[in-house]
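Write out the bound-state structure for magnesium ion.
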Amino acid sequence: MSSCQKPVAGSQLPASLQPPSLPRPLVAALLNPAPPPMPDSSTTLADLRSLVRQFVDERDWRQFHAPKNLSMSLAIEAAELMEHFQWIDAAESRQAAGDAQRLAPIREELADVLCYVLALANELEIDLSTAVMDKMAKNALKYPAEQSRGRYAPPGGTG
Ligand SMILES: [Mg+2]
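---
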């Protein structure tokens, strides 16, 4: 059995949650120093889930990917992201967007956070798109635009 034929653990997922497999050459190319561009405009969440799933499976790391461990890792990566803004004010934090040298490590931590989100969604078989849509619908009810414009607290709350 070649590595291409190796069953992936994700095959136990229901068909509706089954991420499409990326072609092996694409995965290999992505892991090369100069991966091809895979911009947000043409990359799906399923593509990214599949990429993370394959990376994990090829290293037999699912044994370490208990939701407890992944949720803790997600929080740790979020803290690493926050370190880049820890001692600066809000205005200075906005300046990172135009500073390629400062942005590079921030970009990397943000990717770490997303990789753990995707790994956790894979482990818990959560359809992220549906989850986000459901949550945004709840947010829209909690924060009606007319009553929330320019305010960060929910209507009736302080702030
Ligand atoms: Mg990190």
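---
The chain has one domain: 9-127.
The pocket of magnesium ion is lined by residues 77, 80, 109, 112 (CB under 6 Å).
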